[in-house]
């Protein structure tokens, strides 16, 4: 039995809905304490590693059961993102689906950065995925070979000589990966055509870590070429890589754990803040639509930025 302990109650700062938190060896699941069935979502973050629960906790206050899933640099997990075995992620999906408060028949996936391409791999190879939201993710297996039932998706090569350095000495990594539609690099393109779930891509057009807009458009081309539904793509001008929940401060630059050097993440403060407000709303709408949540979004209490900058869909 994976379940180790339950802490009750916990309260979201943006909602009066009581939450409970179930922790296991590799995950933390945030649930409503109300005895009812709610849609389930697996939440996967980027290259920072460890188990971060803030986004899962906030989203649980919007009517979901959300699992924050660690995949490296946490307890007995690998210390570095070198190889990935999808059976590990499959176990997490099955655990969430088996929870008595989770409404099936499938779950949603929410991933940002490296978590985005891991979610795309999960949607492509695993059963039980009903909706996937990718925030500034890649359509290629970016770092570390991925294995599943005898299949291997190799990591695409990186050329660090393509790093662009700003006048402040910060590294822009958005062009270091090989082009996934050229030559042998196509082997690293995630086979999205296998997926049975719809996709929502949220893209910051000032992303300095991944070439996110290009990847989202290539995903759309590949899906449509295989007769699949065109994904929803929302682009945010002047928004950077790390699109967080509303009113989180912009982290424009910091030390890259993966490359061990100062990196620029991109984004202009006002535009990035607006993007975070709208993206939070859009992903809730998408999940409620495709997971059958049966309730609308619960908007942030503070609305200082809404209606500004002309972002489509903002209130």
Task: Write up what this structure looks like.
The chain has helices at about 55-60, 85-100, 115-125, 210-225, 270-290, and strands at about 5-10, 20-25, 25-30, 40-45, 65-70, 85, 100-110, 130-135, 145-150, 150-155, 165, 170, 200-205, 230-235, 255, 260-265. The protein starts with a strand and ends in a 24-residue tail after the last helix. The protein has five helices and 16 strands. Helix content is about 20%, strand content about 25%. Strands 1-2-3-5-4-7-8-13-14 form a nine-stranded mixed β-sheet, with helices on both faces. It has about 325 residues and is an alpha/beta fold. It is globular, with a radius of gyration of 19 Å.
Keywords:
315 residues, alpha/beta, disordered N terminus, disordered C terminus
N- to C-terminal separation? 44 Å
Which value, in Å, is the CA radius of gyration?
19 Å
Note the run of SSEs as H and E: EEEEHEEHEHEEEEEEHEEEH
Structural class: alpha/beta
Q: What is the percent of helical residues?
A: 10-25%
Number of E-type strands: 16
Q: What topology, given as strand order, has the largest sheet?
A: 1-2-3-5-4-7-8-13-14
Overall average pLDDT: 83
């Amino acid at each position: 039995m994976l379940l180790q302990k339950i802490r009750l109650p916990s309260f979201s700062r943006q909602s009066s809905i009581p939450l409970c938190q179930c922790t296991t060896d590799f995950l933390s699941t945030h649930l409503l304490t109300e005895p009812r069935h709610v849609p389930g979502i697996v939440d996967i973050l980027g290259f920072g590693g460890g188990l971060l629960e803030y986004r899962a906790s906030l989203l649980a206050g919007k009517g979901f059961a959300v699992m924050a899933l660690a995949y490296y640099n946490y307890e007995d997990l690998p210390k570095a993102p070198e190889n990935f075995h999808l059976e590990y992620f499959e176990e997490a999906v099955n655990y969430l689906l088996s929870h008595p408060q989770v409404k099936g028949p499938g779950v949603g996936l929410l991933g940002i950065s490296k978590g985005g391409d891991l979610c795309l791999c999960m949607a492509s190879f695993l059963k039980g995925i009903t909706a996937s939201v990718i925030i500034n993710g890649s359509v290629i297996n970016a770092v570390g070979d991925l294995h599943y039932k005898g299949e291997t998706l190799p990591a695409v090569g990186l050329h660090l000589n393509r790093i662009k350095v700003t006048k402040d000495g910060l590294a822009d990594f958005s062009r270091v990966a090989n082009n996934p539609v050229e030559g042998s690099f196509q082997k690293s393109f995630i086979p999205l055509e296998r997926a049975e779930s719809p996709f929502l891509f949220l893209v910051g057009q000032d992303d300095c870590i991944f070439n996110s807009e290009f990847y989202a458009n290539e995903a759309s081309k590949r899906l449509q070429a295989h007769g699949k539904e065109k994904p929803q793509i929302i682009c945010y001008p002047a928004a950077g890589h790390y699109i967080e929940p509303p009113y989180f401060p912009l982290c424009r630059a910091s030390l890259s754990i993966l490359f061990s050097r100062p990196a620029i993440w991109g984004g202009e403060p006002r535009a990035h803040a607006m993007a975070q407000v709208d993206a939070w709303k859009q992903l809730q709408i998408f999940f409620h639509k495709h997971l059958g949540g049966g309730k609308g979004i619960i908007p942030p209490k503070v609305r200082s930025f809404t209606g500004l900058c002309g972002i489509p869909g903002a209130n």
